[in-house]
């Protein structure tokens, strides 16, 4: 996988050094994102092909995919559909096609052919929408977890033992022991 990614990145970025640098960056991201390194590598190649700033967009896309409970590859595919003016089926990826159409004046339902500039504008709208929608999701989950643990502890039914430091919605792990 890494060999293939180096070859693809070399072709896309123009040098082996830039490709190795990108792979190093992906390896550092792998430590913080809930996707495998091969998934991040594939997504990086796709985003580079789309002409996006991978280091800016990939963490945002991965966070949105994680919070939606979606596969990273599916989420990148949804982005490509939006870029190509294919608005059908994007609602399940929390993409508000109507808001994008209203903001940009582009009919995404009809499969309109978009210019490169329009495609970039659509992607920025999608990313901004995901950022707004999921910005506080992890914080809200952490707050709810703390509230629930305090409530349980006050009832003296359970004693909190361990709560993971890495809080992600739907993936929070808490250990409890009977008193």
If you had to describe this structure to a student in words, what would you say it looks like?
- The protein has a two-stranded antiparallel sheet with strand order 1-2.
- Helix 1 (2-13) packs parallel to helix 3 (37-50).
- Helices cover 63% and strands 6% of the residues.
- The longest helix has 19 residues, at 116-134.
- It is mostly helical.
- The model is unreliable at 157-179 (pLDDT under 50).
- It has helices spanning 2-13, 16-30, 37-50, 54-68, 72-83, 97-104, 116-134, 137-154, and strands at 158-163, 174-178.
- The protein is globular and about 40 Å long.
Beta percentage is: 5-15%
Number of strands: 2
The mean pLDDT is 78
- Total helical segments: 8
Provide the low-confidence segments as ranges.
157-179
Residue share in helix: 55-70%
Order of helices and strands: HHHHHHHHEE
Major beta-sheet overview? 2 strands, antiparallel
Order of strands across the widest beta sheet?
1-2
Q: Ends: how far apart? A: 49 Å
Q: Which structural category fits the helices and strands?
A: mainly alpha
Shape: globular
Radius of gyration: 20 Å
């Amino acid at each position: 996988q890494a060999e293939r990614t180096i070859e693809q990145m070399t072709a896309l970025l123009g040098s082996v050094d830039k490709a190795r640098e990108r792979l190093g960056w992906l390896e550092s991201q792998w430590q913080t994102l809930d996707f495998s390194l091969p998934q991040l590598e594939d997504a990086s190649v796709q985003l580079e092909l789309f002409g996006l700033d991978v280091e800016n967009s990939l963490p945002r896309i991965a966070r949105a995919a994680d919070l939606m409970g979606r596969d990273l590859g599916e989420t990148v595919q949804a982005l490509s559909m939006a870029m190509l003016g294919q608005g059908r089926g994007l609602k399940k990826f929390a993409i508000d096609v109507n808001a994008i159409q209203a903001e940009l004046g582009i009919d995404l339902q009809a499969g309109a052919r978009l210019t490169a500039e329009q495609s970039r504008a659509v992607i920025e709208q999608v990313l901004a929408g995901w950022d707004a929608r999921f910005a506080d999701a992890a914080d809200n989950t952490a707050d709810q977890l703390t509230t629930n643990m305090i409530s349980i502890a006050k009832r003296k039914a359970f004693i909190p033992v361990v709560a993971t430091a890495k809080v992600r919605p739907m993936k929070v792990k808490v250990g409890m022991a009977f008193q």
